[in-house]
């Protein structure tokens, strides 16, 4: 909480104190107003609900406060009227709103309930409004309105005029064992209950109160009658406070009992009676000219003061443990440099700037003395106890002696730029200025270094602190020297203390060092939880505690264990963290700051270790908002953010509240720390998550976490079956595309294959047609030969057979395949013609495998004929004598094995005959057969073979002739 938001209300000259003494203690108080979020500067009432929230009623609605943020409600949020004049909180956590229209309404479970949205609250108010509210033992609610009619609410319905006419407030006060009031007091014009004649009324107020009456006040009802207070029950009404006896003339509008203290609110001021119920007569007048409308003490002990037109004031509970002094309640200024309390007289001495020394005696009377009137800087830097009724005062421009009994100051020694003063156990005084050590007998001047502090270890030995480190001096040497060789001695020193044979060194930027026998034995810094490494002053209390004044508060060190005891900062109640000086006496710590003096009892210093109550405020998912709950089931939204808004109820240092959250399906993962009260989780995927949120405030432990379970449900398209359908459709689409692509490829390959096959067939036919002229040429040669030999008849027969053969050959040449029977018939007619042509010089026969009879075999036409022709022309024709020709056909799997065997002159001998024509014909015929076999392979994959064997050369004994073997691809059908 920013310090400039606090103001000080002082018990000073403006206080009304019947003892005749002016008090000098202040209270730090904060004001909340419209600029902070309050609904209106006029606040009628305040109440704390079951969860811990503070509610304020105003003319423009109600405000709900958690210590840091206001949440305002008006008619647009469900109130029956904006002008809410009273509030009440019952045991079920409902906050009731009193409006001038008389319609009952309350807040519960994040919603305002009225007769419009809750039929159980519907009544006809008859133009009257509610004045008082009670709760019975069954948690039923009873209202008394301005017409003295009773309205009962039992949770199911609201009944008007429940007890009939004639019922008044005294009825509820008589039956105080049945009806518990939900307001702290009752303002009455008379105490007389006509239906209770036996009741005793004691109007005289004695002070101090007896113990029995003090005990009874806490159990009975409290009644305000003008400016007197009564303890009231059915038997008696006893006055326990009379405002006139305390100087309060105006009417009392409200009260608050705070332990042993009593707070009184009036239309003109606030009065604080500290220790009233312990018999102490201490009255403080606060908030003069403020109309106090209500007072509330919350569960933590904080005091809330609502006003008419000036907002809300809050006094934190811990500020009652502190006393404050500055220029608003008696001091010269708010900036303080030194402090000391004289043990004998009890006088408090406070050194300030402008050479002003303030004194406050045991009766809290403050006086000011101007010791140093020189120009320039002349602050009082140190105050030390000296002799009886005397203290030494070190100012910027000299050393002074102040007599506490006579309250008189005198100059002992003028010193320019005085930095520090110390007194040895024997009473010897030594001073350091910025460049000199000054004693009664001699001075030591330092040229290059800036001196800052001095501490005596005996009457004749001392240590000096400077910006370059630590020096050691003696009265004998009258010179400064560097003690030892430890490098840690060469630090910028701000202050020194000699404690039990050890030198404690406060540095300007490295924390605290401890030296023994000129060697460093301990270093304490922020790493050891020291509040700051910038030490401004060291103070030893003589009982084992060293106080380190820094720019961020005070650190308390145990000098025996050399460990940190605790830190004290403005968060604990100090007026500032900029600490100049510390003093301790009889359990009270005095801390001088740049913003005033704070002093308090060290043993009663409050430490709030109770964790804050954490709450959920709003849940958002996407564009929708939800009221807080422990479980949420939400339908997945793409790129939507799940956002949680939460807070903690903390009225003391709410700005120091920090949060931790854990949000995952794995609750064992680490906590994330944040100062923000809104945490977003973007794009949550369908799953169940657990959100845990906890908080802690200054010096407290972590609170128990609030747990929220969040289930993000998948959309239909995220369900397993939907995903399965999508995957299946995707696979089908891929399969369809692949099938389409494959079919296109197959069709393309099929077209390409068909094209290639067609080309191959055409090439085969072309080769077949190429053989036809060859055969015709040879046949015509034979006819020519017969005519020349005068064999006309035989030539005619030959021509007739040749014509038949040609017709058969022409038919076969149009086909890609012919049957084996057709091929054998064709070969037979051809061989017969060749026998005629060569005068029957050879015989022939066909050998067919029996399995061939079981199938219809198709082979390419004109593929065997050229081999037979070569056998006759080049093997048998040149032979002397008759020859033999054998054609053998055997089925070999999907191939037809054909061998043409002759006993002619042989392959090698035929090649030796010098007949270029024959060689050319032979070469052409065989190359054509091989090419045809290769083409057949290209379009049906069957591999044919042609092999020519010279039997004499190839190991067939003495046999002559040629054996030609050919494997012919076939088409086989049953």
From TrEMBL:
Positions of transmembrane segments: 720-742
Keywords associated with the record: Membrane, Signal, Transmembrane, Transmembrane helix
Domain spans labelled Signal transduction histidine kinase internal region: 763-840
Membrane is among the record's keywords: yes
Domain of life: Bacteria
Entry GO terms, CC: membrane
GO molecular function, one term: phosphorelay sensor kinase activity
Full protein name: Signal transduction histidine kinase internal region domain-containing protein
Source species of the chain: Chitinophaga tropicalis
Keyword Transcription regulation: no
Signal sequence segment: 1-24
Pfam families documented for this protein: His_kinase, Reg_prop
């Amino acid at each position: 909480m920013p310090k400039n938001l606090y103001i000080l209300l002082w018990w000073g000259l403006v206080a009304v104190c019947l003892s005749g003494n002016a008090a000098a203690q202040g209270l730090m108080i904060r004001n909340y107003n419209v600029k902070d979020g309050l609904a209106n500067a006029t606040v009628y009432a305040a109440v704390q609900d079951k969860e811990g929230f503070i509610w304020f009623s105003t003319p423009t609605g109600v405000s709900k406060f958690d210590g840091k943020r206001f949440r305002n409600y008006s008619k647009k949020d469900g109130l029956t009227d904006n002008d809410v004049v009273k509030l009440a909180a019952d045991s079920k956590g409902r906050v009731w709103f009193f409006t001038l229209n008389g319609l009952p309404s309350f807040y519960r479970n994040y919603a305002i309930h009225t007769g419009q949205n809750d039929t159980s609250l519907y009544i006809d108010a008859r133009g009257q409004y509610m004045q008082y509210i009670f709760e019975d033992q069954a948690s039923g609610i009873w209202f008394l309105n301005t017409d003295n009619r009773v309205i009962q609410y039992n949770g199911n319905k609201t009944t008007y005029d429940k007890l009939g006419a004639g019922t008044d407030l005294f009825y509820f006060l008589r039956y105080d064992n049945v009806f518990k009031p939900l307001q702290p007091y009752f303002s009455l014009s008379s105490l007389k209950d006509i239906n209770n004649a036996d009741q005793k009324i004691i109007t005289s107020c004695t002070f101090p109160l007896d113990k029995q009456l003090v005990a009874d006040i806490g159990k009975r009802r409290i009644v305000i009658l003008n400016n007197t207070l009564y303890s009231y029950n059915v038997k008696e009404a006893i006055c326990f406070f009379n405002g006139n006896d305390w100087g309060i003339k105006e009417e009392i509008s409200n009260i608050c009992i705070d332990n042993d203290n009593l707070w009184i609110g009036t239309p003109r001021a606030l009065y604080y009676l500290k220790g009233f119920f312990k018999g102490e007569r201490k009255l403080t007048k606060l908030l003069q000219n403020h109309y106090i409308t209500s007072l509330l003490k919350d569960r933590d002990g904080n005091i809330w003061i609502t006003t008419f037109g000036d907002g809300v004031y809050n006094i934190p509970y811990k500020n009652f443990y502190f006393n404050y002094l500055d220029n608003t309640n008696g001091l010269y200024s708010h900036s303080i440099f030194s402090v000391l309390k004289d043990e004998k007289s009890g006088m408090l001495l406070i050194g300030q700037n402008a050479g002003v020394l303030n004194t406050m005696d045991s009766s809290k009377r403050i006086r000011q003395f101007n010791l140093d009137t020189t120009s320039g800087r002349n602050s009082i830097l140190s105050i030390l106890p000296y002799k009886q009724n005397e203290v030494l005062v070190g100012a910027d421009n000299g050393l002074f002696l102040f007599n506490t009994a006579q309250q008189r100051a005198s100059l002992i020694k003028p010193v320019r730029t005085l930095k520090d003063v110390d007194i040895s156990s024997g009473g010897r005084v030594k001073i350091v200025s910025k460049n000199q050590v000054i004693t009664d007998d001699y001075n030591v001047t330092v040229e290059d270094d800036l001196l800052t502090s001095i501490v005596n270890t005996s009457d004749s030995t001392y240590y000096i602190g400077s910006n370059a480190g630590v020096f050691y001096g003696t009265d004998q040497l009258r010179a400064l020297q560097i003690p030892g060789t430890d490098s840690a001695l060469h630090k910028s020193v701000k202050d020194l203390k000699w404690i039990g044979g050890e030198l404690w060194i406060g540095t300007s930027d490295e924390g605290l060092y401890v030296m023994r026998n000129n060697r460093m034995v301990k270093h304490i810094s922020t790493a050891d939880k020291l509040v700051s490494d910038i030490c401004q002053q060291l103070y030893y209390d003589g009982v084992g505690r060293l106080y380190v004044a820094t720019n961020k508060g005070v650190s308390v060190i145990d000098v025996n264990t050399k460990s940190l005891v605790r830190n004290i900062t403005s968060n604990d109640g100090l007026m500032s963290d900029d600490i100049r000086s510390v003093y301790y006496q009889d359990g009270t710590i005095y801390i001088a700051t740049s913003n005033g003096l704070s002093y308090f009892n060290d043993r009663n210093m409050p430490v709030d270790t109770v964790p804050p109550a954490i709450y959920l405020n709003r849940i958002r998912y996407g564009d929708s908002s939800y009221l807080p709950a422990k479980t949420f089931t939400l339908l997945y939204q793409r790129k939507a953010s799940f956002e949680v808004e939460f807070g903690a109820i903390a009225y003391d240092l709410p700005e120091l509240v920090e949060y931790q959250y854990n949000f995952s399906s794995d609750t064992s993962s680490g906590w994330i720390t944040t100062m923000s009260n809104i945490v977003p989780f973007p794009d949550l995927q369908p799953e169940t998550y657990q959100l845990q949120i906890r908080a802690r405030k200054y010096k407290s432990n972590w609170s128990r976490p609030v747990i929220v379970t969040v289930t993000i449900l998948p959309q239909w398209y995220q369900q397993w079956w939907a995903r399965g359908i999508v995957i299946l459709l995707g696979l089908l689409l891929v399969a369809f595309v692949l099938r389409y692509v494959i079919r296109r490829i197959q069709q393309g390959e099929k077209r390409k294959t068909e094209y290639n096959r067609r080309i191959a067939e055409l090439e085969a036919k072309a080769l077949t047609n190429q053989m036809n002229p060859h055969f015709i040429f040879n046949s015509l040669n034979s006819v020519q030969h017969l005519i020349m030999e005068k064999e006309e008849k035989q030539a005619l027969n030959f021509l007739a057979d040749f014509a038949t053969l040609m017709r058969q050959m022409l038919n076969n040449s149009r086909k890609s395949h012919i049957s084996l029977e057709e091929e054998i018939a064709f070969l037979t007619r051809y061989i017969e013609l060749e026998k005629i042509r060569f005068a029957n010089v050879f015989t022939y026969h066909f050998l067919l495998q029996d399995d061939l009879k079981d199938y219809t075999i198709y082979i390419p036409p004109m593929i065997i004929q050229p081999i037979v022709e070569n056998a006759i022309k080049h093997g048998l024709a040149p032979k002397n004598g008759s020859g033999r020709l054998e054609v053998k056909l055997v089925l070999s799997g999907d191939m037809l094995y054909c061998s043409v065997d002759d006993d002619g002159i042989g392959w090698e001998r035929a090649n030796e005959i010098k007949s270029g024509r024959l060689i050319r014909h032979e070469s052409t015929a065989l190359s054509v057969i091989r090419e045809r076999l290769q083409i057949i392979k290209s379009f049906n994959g069957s591999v044919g073979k042609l092999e020519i064997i010279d039997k004499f050369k190839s190991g067939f004994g003495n046999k002559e002739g040629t054996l030609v073997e050919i494997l012919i691809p076939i088409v086989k059908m049953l």
